[in-house]
Fold this sequence. Notes:
Layout (H helix, E strand, L loop, with lengths): L1 H22 L10 H22 L3 H26 L12
Helix pairs in contact: 2-3
Amino acid sequence: MGANATVNTSESAEARAAAEAERHAEPVGHGNSPAAWTLVAIVLFGSAISCVAFALASALWFWIGVVVMGIGLLVGLIMRKVGYGVGGHKLKNNGH
């Protein structure tokens, strides 16, 4: 009975390893696109404004930074919708 349990454990480990390899076989993309990079750059700029404003106790500049972060989110979403996101039609090579 102990040998049978070892075989089942090794088979399930092999099955898990095969399933994991299959899951990682397809490229994910991870947002490597102009839309994602633009979003990240704008949000980082807004968060830097908010961080400095927080340290200086300036509520006005803190909220300006928050608004800049929101604008960054909107810009990234709009760029994705018009084709600059991962797999977007503006990024595909058409042979020209």
